[in-house]
Design a protein that fits this description.
With 89 residues, this protein is mainly alpha-helical.
């Protein structure tokens, strides 16, 4: 069991949370277009989820394309599976 002290020490302060949201905002292309406007945390988190879904779809699409072309790239199916797994991480 955790003591109250260990739980309290692992909590993030409002300032730390705001700093993390600002850092996250800078990583999102659709929210980081040269303007320094403050965006709500809800919008940043929603955009983050959407961006991650788009990236995952891209990985899936590229993985599918890669799996369809192993013969032309002189790689074995084992190599293709390794690449597919790496892309999905």
């Amino acid at each position: 069991m955790f003591s109250h002290g260990s739980r309290a020490s692992s909590r993030i302060t409002d300032d730390e949370l705001n700093a993390l949201i600002l850092k996250l905002q800078t990583l999102l292309p659709q929210l980081n277009q040269g303007r320094n406007a403050r965006v709500s945390a809800t919008k940043v988190l929603n955009e983050t989820c959407s961006y991650i879904r788009r990236l995952q779809k891209e990985v899936d699409d590229l993985s599918e394309r890669l799996s369809q072309r192993p013969g032309s790239m002189d790689i074995t199916s084992f190599d293709a599976e390794i690449l597919r797994n790496l892309l999905q991480q």
